[in-house]
Amino acid sequence: MSVWQTHGERTVYENPWLRVNMADVELPDGRHLDHTVIRLRPVAVAAVVNERDEVMLLWRHRFITDAWGWELPSGGIGEGEDAAVAAARELEEETGWRPGPMKLLMAIDPMPGISTSHHRVYWSDQAQYVGPPADDFESARREWVPLSRVPDLVARGEIRSANAIAALLMLHHLR
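Below the sequence we write its predicted structure tokens.
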């Protein structure tokens, strides 16, 4: 079994959202290399599917990739915060819909070769509209999109976020 051994890390940059480290890594053949490690807070992702098999999505622009796309509400999990509670909070803040009981759909690590970005995706089959979203700046619009459209939206590149693609294709499969 070939396992990479870590002999320590040093921080090269840090802010409240992330830390970039350089790890001293020994490869199975004995060679050493410096490997970048991006350490991030865990992320909670929320999906709600209504009785018409539609999912609440956000249409938003991401300046980093300069691309528009559909996404699920998501955000960092606070220190000591329950991940399901964080997912419900993000859904309400970003859409104005309060979900019913949240169930774990999946846990994913979108970039395990470089990042500790761990995403926990929760879903609910009920939600209640409670008013305009507190964080309406997060998206240009919020819409109920039929799950049946998900594979086509992914194929056309209108859903680009790894956590959204994984979660929505899983929900499409399950429903």
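The longest strand covers residues 5-14.
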